[in-house]
Amino acid sequence: MNPLTQFKKISILRLVACLSLGAIFALATSAYAQNLYVSAQVPPSHAILQFTPDGMPSTYASGLLFPRGLAFDSIGNLLAAHNPQVDHHGIGRVLKFNLQNHVSTFGSAAKFFFQGLAVDVAGNAYVMATDDRDPTAAGTIFKFTPSGERTVFGSVPGVPDPLVSNGGLAFDSTGDLYATASNAQTIYKFAPNGTRTVFVGPEAFAPGENPFGLAFDSNGNLFVSIETFSDPGADSIVYFTPMGVKSTFATGLTTPRGLAFDSSGNLFVAEVNQPEANQPGEILKFPPGGGPPTVFASFSIGRPQFLTFGPPR
Questions:
Q1: Confidence of residue 312 (pLDDT cuts 50, 70, 90)
Q2: Rg of the Cα trace of the chain?
Q3: Collapsing DSSP states into helix, strand and coil, what is residue 8?
């Protein structure tokens, strides 16, 4: 793996402004690695977009509110976390889009905000949720079965911080679930029975670094997006070997969020940039092994978050 210390972005696609794409919130990948699915804040409503391999966008689902994590199950259902308001209260929901593109509620939890989402081989959905009544910003991981049962699979501690929220979830090849406690600077590992251990702790991160997005490459290395909420270009992507040895993959980023690998080993990164400074959000594409990225897609404004690939729908 060749680390990248700085890079010059090479734009290969700029979406036309008439698409009115607001904040990008998630990108998703399946084993087919065909189309790229993106949960996006598109004023005045929010949507899930899909991109063909050559970058052509279309709207897959609209009328959502704060859609976040996306994942495909083993039979091709698309699961999406989103966060509508009901009677002036937030409610986290996991939506299921079946193979006929009909949508239903897979699971929900009142007064929780849903972020990252992952699906195991049995079709159970796991979602990172933050209770808006908890000032510590601790995270609860809910498990939703295909039959509709909801249980608490695990939790991660929080540290009060108005800027930082827990985000990423990812399964490794053996079925262990990894979760970021972003403001606690810790990545936890959960065994299939829910036993929690620390994969890497605060000693793996510099002061002010907050881990967020997670994705495994084909060699079992865990890639992590790092946010600092400081100067533009101060953020990075790192990766950890299965034994927890850390390396830097890319620097010079501004608020990277979701990560996802396609079937060819390219790493896609949702980068927020600085919307308040009219810097557009982008989807970056890094070649296998590292090196300068290209800009797969750029938006007039945007706040990208999570990533995944799946078959055309």
A1: confident
A2: 18
A3: coil
